[in-house]
Amino acid sequence: MTLAGKLDFICGLRRDYRADTRFRSAYMALLDSLGNPHRNLPPVIHVAGTNGKGSTIAFMRAILEAAGLRVHVYTSPHLLRANERIVLSGGEIVDDMLEFLIDEALRRCPDPTHPDLSFFEFFTACAFTAFAHSPADILLLETGLGGALDCTNVVEHPLITVITTLSYDHTETLGSDLTAIAAAKAGIMKPEAPCVAAHQIYGEVLPVLRERAGALAIPLYSENDGWRAEGSGRAGDLLRVATAARTVSNLPAPCLHGAHQLHNAATAVAALMLQDRFEIPDEAFAKGLTCASWPARLQKIGSALLPPSWELWLDGGHNDSAALVLADQARAWQAADGRKLHIVTAMMGHKDAARFAGPLAGLASSVTAIPGHHHLSSPGCGAMRARPVCGSRWIVICPPFCAIWRRTTRRAGAFW
């Protein structure tokens, strides 16, 4: 079987969309058969949150590498290739090593088709094995879903934990209110490991994080209560991040687009200032903010097919807080030149499409929904549920991309 075939096989494990956050015995048995690699990792920065996890990790990675450190990274989901999820000392895992890890896990797994073993558990076990056997100075570890019982949370002694912006997502698993969601995310906090919390847009979040930190007797450093950031994030406006012990000034605006990236960049800087294992020079902070890479987050896509005055932007946002920052960016674009906004969107069936569409509805001249290939992303289950919010601006479902392109380009204005 080829690597692609093996990936298809493990992707088929527990394909039901209702994710389960228990520590299942099949996962723990797999880790044990692999020698419990999660207990032999470099120092770990563990990151949970609803939005901004990947961007914050991208900034931390760029800063740490600018400081000369070897950095492992684990993120999800991938965009194009599963290799993207596992970065070993600065480079994506190569096919031969990924295939070896999958083969080894399949060989050691008593029953790889066990109904209680998921793709994410299997892949995380492979990732831990790679990280444990490849030298590095630090591991940036992103949760998959939740925190307390996410399968990455078997790491017992992180260097520091980071909780990014929390909002509504995976409510079918984590709960429908922010108190429950925050409690799940706060589960990554560990004794003797400080926690850094990013800017929060909902007032219910920080009291839950403070309660968890207090129960563990660890410091919680939240924005404006443990660290602070100053600067607009606009080009030419310098950023300043300060903790009680240190201030880093004259930082350039982050290279990733969107005002929200100022918060992600500042969180990354604050987290690395507040850890006590590595000394990061000011120059590394500045360089990292200008060279971080995190595709499909307000990414401008070039195309020879676009008319000269048009722009095409790609973003993977799919929840309320993502919609709020996209709406802020759309208003900034429209204030700058008055061009129209056309949205082409697809969304999985268990996402709250109406909550996502709300902040954007008054800004879009049109919205096109793309149906998926199965019930998880079909418009009846996903994006079409936003139709009452978008009202008359919602247009007909259009499966073929060429037809979407023709319909959109017939309208006057720009294509964002």
- Tell me the CATH architecture of the largest domain: 3-Layer(aba) Sandwich
How much strand content do the residues show?
Answer: 5-15%
Order of helices and strands: HHEHEEEHHEEHHEHEEEEHHEEHEHEHH
- The tally of strands reads 15
The CATH C-level name of the largest domain is Alpha Beta
Overall residue-averaged pLDDT value: 84
The total tally of domains equals 2
Which structural class do you get from the secondary structure elements?
alpha/beta
Query: Outline, from the CA principal axes?
Result: globular
Could you estimate the helical fraction of the residues in percent? 25-40%
Largest sheet: 11 strands, mixed
CATH topology of the largest domain: UDP-N-acetylmuramoyl-L-alanine:D-glutamate ligase
Q: For this structure, what is the CATH homologous superfamily of the largest domain?
A: Mur-like, catalytic domain
- Distance linking N and C termini: 42 Å
The largest sheet has its strands arranged as 4-3-2-5-1-6-7-8-9-10-11
Rounded to an integer, what's the Rg over CA atoms?
Answer: 22 Å
Catalogue the unreliable spans: 17-21, 374-381, 388-406, 411-416
Number of helices: 14
